[in-house]
Specification:
This protein is of the alpha/beta class and about 210 residues long. Helices cover about 35% and strands about 15% of the residues. The radius of gyration is 27 Å and the shape is elongated.
Length: about 210
């Protein structure tokens, strides 16, 4: 069962805490983690680029000139792809599908693997409590500075429940992001160096995601 140190908001060690091994001490499979990241990126991708085919371009209802006798090449519509202003033959369309399917158990297992890696790399910082009296950036930045000992690293702040003071105070601090414990995902965990959360968030993670 993994044991981690707990700190107060001033960055002082005040004790230790035991974490559930079925979440924070699992065997790591990098291929599965990679698959979960690729699936999340693909499923969040928006299909924006779109070109119109000849059936979508406006106009071209009548034949530009008669079939024979003009000396010019025969044409049936000015919206043909070989005409300027006509449709595009092989351009990108909105019908493209980038979504990738990944099973719920696989995604959850990959999440536990990343949380385990945070423990093994000493990148999980557990606080006894995380709260602010008002939504001010300065005290939040001071708290992070005290905990990280002035290390210029990115931090993912995980809160156990909705807290507008923490979210708003953390919004203007560079290289940080606030996320609720019931909304954890592999991509955000890997995008930030340190994971900062209170002890209550561990219970929320255990309740939300259960065990493998």
């Amino acid at each position: 069962m993994p044991r981690v140190n707990t700190y107060n908001t001033e960055g002082k060690k005040i004790g230790t805490a035991m974490l559930p091994p079925e979440i924070f001490d699992v065997k790591i499979n990098t291929d599965l983690v990679h698959q979960a990241v690729v699936a999340q990126l693909a499923n969040s991708r928006q299909v924006i680029a779109h070109t119109k085919g000849r059936s979508e371009v406006r106009g071209g209802g009548r034949k530009p000139w008669r079939q024979k006798g003009t000396g010019r090449a025969r044409h049936g519509s000015i919206r043909s792809p070989i005409w300027r202003g006509g449709g595009v033959t092989f351009g990108p369309t909105k019908e493209r599908v980038f979504k990738k399917k990944i099973n719920k158990k696989m995604k959850r297992k990959a999440l536990f693997m990343v949380l385990t890696s945070k423990i093994k790399d000493d990148e999980l910082i557990l606080l006894d409590k995380l709260e602010l009296k008002e939504a001010k950036t300065k005290p939040m930045a001071k708290m992070i500075e005290n905990i990280l000992k002035k290390k210029q690293k990115s931090v993912l702040v995980v809160i156990s429940q909705k807290d507008e003071n923490i979210a708003r105070a953390n919004k203007n601090i560079p290289y940080t992001k606030t996320l609720r414990a019931d909304s954890l995902n592999v991509l955000d965990l890997l995008s930030f160096k340190y994971l900062l959360m209170p002890k209550e968030a561990v219970k929320v993670i255990e309740k939300t995601y259960g065990t493998i």
